Amino acid sequence: MAVEHDRILAAIDVGTNSIHMVVVRVQPFLPTFSIIAREKATVRLGDRCKETGNLTEAAMQRAIDALKRCQEIAKSLSAEQIIAVATSAVREAPNGRDFIQRVETDLGLWINLISGAEEARRIYLGVLSGMEFDLQPHVLIDIGGGSTELVLGDGQDPRSLSSTKIGAVRLTAEYITTDPISDAEFQFLQAYIRGMLERPIDELRAHLRPGEHPRMVGTSGTIEALATIHAREHLGTVPTPLNGYSFQLKDLRDIVYRLRRLNCAARAQIAGINDRRAEIILAGAMILLEAMSLLDIDTITICERSLREGLVVDWMLTHGLIEDRLRYQSSVRQRSVLKIARKYCVNLPYSERVAEFALKLFDQTKGLLHSWGDDERELLWAAAILHNCGHFISHSAHHKHSYYLIRNGELLGYTEIEIETIANLARYHRKSNPKKKHESYRNLTSKKYRRVVEQLSALLRLAVALDRRQIGAIRDITCQLSPDRQELKLRLQATQTGDDCALELWSLDSKKMSFEAEFGLKLIPILEAATIATRG
To answer: Which residues, 6+ apart, have CB-to-CB distance to 463 below 8 Å?
Structure first.
């Protein structure tokens, strides 16, 4: 058996406050990974234009400069791939997608936008890679610049995932105007944070079993900075690494009490707190204080692994390199799609037949009519399963309703552009072909994914036609491309002898125009004579 060689991978988290990168050595044989380099730049993408909400030119340029340095470091360490994701600042800014396109144009680096729930899931994966849960419940909290993620898990499936729009940069920019903070602003901010956290914490509590008392694990720069302050005061030194270091709620209250009475310059004099962290640490500390108080948890433990390490774990899962306690996560995409299908009362036996036909068309035309791979094949499967979910809203224009439900259904395991692609594939399984005037199609900011939709929606249309009566009338299909590549014969085998499949053939005839126009050939459906009983 061939031994797989170590692989070098870089993972970048484009956050609201900072850009972080880890470069890791993945050891497939074990399987595990070790961090060989880190890079961090405080770029403050969250300092957005107050009038428009747009990312500012200065912030975007700082981010591009930082990403270029990350690229250079990754290249110098022979990284085979760079995975980059962006979170709340880019997710919420009206020009966030323009920024992603600019990075792709300037640097050739594609940044994947991920939802808040997906960010929380990958944070969970990152923490699991560095900490044993022993099947006991843990609450994870990650306080970022623009959002705070809360996760409840015990090492198996996450029981609860949430992302709330409160972060250290966001709250400082929007609600702190005094320095030191005035009592009135402090009390307002405290009440605001508590109000924002009450719902996600109630949802998290609903997933706790009777008698369970979860431990709390904290990630992110804000919580590490608070742990650093605590360690210097109580130990006289800061442990290296901080991983596993704990401090209590009563000590956090003392720290917050002191921080609120210092101005920014004085906070920057605290050992281990730089100027940029000093500006936002009070708001971040207040988020942690309110979360711990609402959850009635008196101790928090630091984990230095978080989103960027979660990106590495997710990459290892999707490449089949992990088969141990994280194995359940490898099917998160499929399970998430099926969960959405059940939520919207999809006829699963029918959708699964459509998906089977779509994948057979994909596989049999790969290398002949298209060159898409496993990733795009999986997007086609998801779209086929969910293409009819819009019936949950209305039969009329249900393809458009399918787009909306998929786009807003919080599919886990996918990036925003992948969710957009699935939604567009479902949107174009009938009626109009993709057009630039359609807002849904314009939301695909990547030329690659627009091409995926153009080509694979044509396959999905045929797959839908092949089960027009939704009874499984067609048992199997075989594609046969003519030597001159001008015709594609689609040989069909009926399930029931004597069934002429007239409605399926009629539907194919009406749906094949998109396919023929897209691939520049003629489609000829042929119902195999042997499957039809002799009449007489």
So the answer is: 354, 355, 357, 358, 361, 384
131-304 folds as: Nucleotidyltransferase; domain 5 (3.30.420)
**39 pairs with which residues across the strands?**
21
Distance CA 183, CA 242 (A): 33
Q: What is the pLDDT along the chain (536 residues), one digit of tens a residue?
A: 344 688 999 999 999 999 999 999 988 776 678 899 999 999 999 889 989 999 999 999 999 999 999 999 999 999 999 999 999 999 999 999 999 999 999 999 999 999 999 999 999 999 988 888 888 999 999 999 999 999 999 988 899 999 999 999 999 999 999 999 999 999 999 999 999 999 999 999 999 999 999 999 999 899 999 999 999 999 989 888 888 899 999 999 999 999 999 999 999 999 889 888 999 999 999 999 999 999 999 999 999 999 999 999 999 888 877 755 444 444 778 888 998 999 999 999 999 999 999 999 999 999 999 999 999 999 999 999 999 999 999 989 999 999 999 998 878 888 888 999 999 999 999 999 999 899 999 888 888 999 999 999 999 999 999 999 999 999 999 999 999 999 999 999 999 988 999 999 999 999 999 999 999 999 999 998 544 443 33
Q: Reduce the DSSP state of residue 305 to 3 states and report it.
A: coil
Chosen CATH of 332-531 out of 3.40.50.2020, 3.40.1500.20, 1.25.40.20, 1.10.3210.10: 1.10.3210.10
* CATH class of the domain at 7-115+309-323: alpha beta
3-class secondary structure, 386: helix
**Structure token digits, residue 358:** 């779509």
